[in-house]
């Protein structure tokens, strides 16, 4: 498959963005949702910040505390020699117990908008667009997807707290203000992507529950009458026994319509946490029917900025745009920066095999 990576990749890096919080540093700008409005391409960036680490014996992280009503940003300092914690994963701090439960994240994420007239060079807004406002978001908001239905844009995102990973929904018409619509999936769930139109009178969404006992982290389908309450959940796409997608899979970009069916660009990781992108084709009238999928990735971490970074060997998309017959994929790399590539739509469709 011919993948045209933009020569100027990464298009946005942590050093391109000033921290929003005092005495913090931006360590990641990645996994952006994508929208088009009034001739502009908008990236809804996940921006991850952490306190400046000025003591080699400590790890500092940030949470938003809602214990006293009004949210308060708090910096926590944890001693590296505290045997109650495991600091080995750069993304999370674990309780050093048998359950291996997450104690804290190592950064606080929020959503910030970048704007572009050509889809390649972006200017980033100074202030956050979506910032933690409820207790279910006290550890941050992450990985937005944007679905346009008529003149309204619905933003689905991961809401993180000590209660787990839930999915929030907001709507906007102008990306200046928005209306909060609540949590639409409880923990543990993420990777929600709502289809941009009704089918047979129903809205549909991809989602990825994370079973803790029986089952695997795989892609499911849900339906709704009103975008707020979801049911009739059906398993859609599972892991392979071996290969690039044998660890976990989840929805990536919002599905888009082709003459052959709904095309979904999804992510998968193997058991070594190497993330790639694949494609799956769903029936236009009944998206619970999987028609075909790619056997091999359409995008794998190969460039240096994709293999090295905060968490290497990761390509992860939350949004694409269609430029004539070329698919422009915006994707996070190594949990660090944003990149973009273009792939001919016909090339992807030709590599789908029936299932």
Summarize the structure.
This protein has 355 residues and is mainly β.
Describe the overall structure.
This protein is mainly β and 355 residues long. The chain is 3% helix and 52% strand. The chain contains two helices and 27 strands. The strands form seven sheets. Strands 19, 20, 21, 22, 23 and 27 form a six-stranded antiparallel β-sheet that branches. Strand 13 (164-172) and strand 14 form a beta hairpin. The two termini are 20 Å apart.
Return the string of H and E elements: EEEEEEEEEEEEEEEEEEEEEEEHEEEHE
Q: What is the name of the CATH topology?
A: Tachylectin-2, Chain A
3D shape: globular
- Top-tier CATH class: Mainly Beta
Beta strands, count = 27
Topology:
Layout: E1 4-5, E2 24-37, E3 40-51, E4 58-65, E5 72-79, E6 85-86, E7 92-95, E8 102-105, E9 108-116, E10 123-124, E11 140-149, E12 152-161, E13 164-172, E14 179-185, E15 189-194, E16 203-209, E17 219-224, E18 230-237, E19 248-251, E20 256-257, E21 262-269, E22 275-282, E23 290-294, H1 304-307, E24 315-323, E25 326-333, E26 337-344, H2 345-350, E27 352-354
Antiparallel strand pairs: 1-26, 2-3, 3-9, 4-5, 6-7, 7-8, 9-10, 11-12, 12-13, 13-14, 15-16, 16-17, 17-18, 19-21, 20-21, 21-22, 22-23, 23-27, 24-25, 25-26
Supply database-style keywords.
single chain, 355 residues, mainly beta, six-stranded antiparallel sheet, 2 helices
């Amino acid at each position: 498959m011919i993948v045209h990576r933009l020569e100027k990749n990464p298009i946005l890096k942590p050093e391109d963005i000033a921290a929003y919080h005092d005495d913090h540093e931006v360590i990641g700008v990645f996994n952006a949702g994508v929208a088009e409005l009034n001739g502009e391409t908008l990236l809804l960036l996940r921006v991850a910040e952490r306190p400046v680490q000025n003591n080699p014996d400590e790890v500092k992280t940030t949470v938003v505390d809602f214990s006293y009503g009004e949210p308060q940003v708090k910096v926590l300092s944890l001693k590296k020699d505290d045997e109650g914690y495991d600091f080995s994963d750069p993304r999370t701090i674990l309780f050093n117990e048998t359950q291996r439960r997450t104690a804290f994240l190592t950064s606080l994420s929020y959503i910030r908008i970048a704007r572009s007239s050509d889809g390649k060079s972006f200017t980033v807004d100074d202030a956050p667009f979506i910032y933690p406002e409820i207790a279910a978001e006290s550890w941050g908001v992450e990985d937005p997807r944007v679905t346009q239905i008529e003149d309204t844009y619905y933003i689905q995102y991961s809401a993180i707290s000590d209660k787990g990973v839930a999915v929030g929904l907001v709507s906007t018409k102008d990306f200046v203000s928005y209306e909060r619509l609540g949590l639409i999936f409880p923990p543990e769930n993420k990777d929600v992507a709502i289809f941009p139109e009704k089918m047979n009178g129903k809205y549909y969404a991809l989602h990825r529950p994370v079973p803790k006992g029986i089952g695997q982290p795989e892609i499911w389908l849900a339906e709704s009458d009103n975008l707020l309450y979801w049911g009739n959940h059906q398993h859609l796409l599972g892991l392979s026994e071996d290969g690039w997608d044998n660890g976990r899979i989840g929805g990536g970009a919002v599905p888009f319509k082709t003459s052959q069916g709904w095309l979904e660009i999804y992510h998968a990781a193997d058991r070594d946490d190497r993330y790639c992108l694949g494609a799956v084709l769903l029936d236009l009238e009944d998206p619970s029917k999987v028609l075909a999928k790619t056997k091999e990735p359409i995008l794998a971490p190969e460039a240096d900025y994709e293999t090295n970074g905060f968490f290497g060997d990761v390509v992860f998309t939350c949004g694409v745009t269609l430029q004539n017959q070329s698919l422009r994929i915006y994707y996070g790399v190594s949990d660090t920066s944003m990149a973009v590539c273009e792939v001919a739509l016909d090339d992807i469709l030709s590599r789908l095999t029936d299932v």
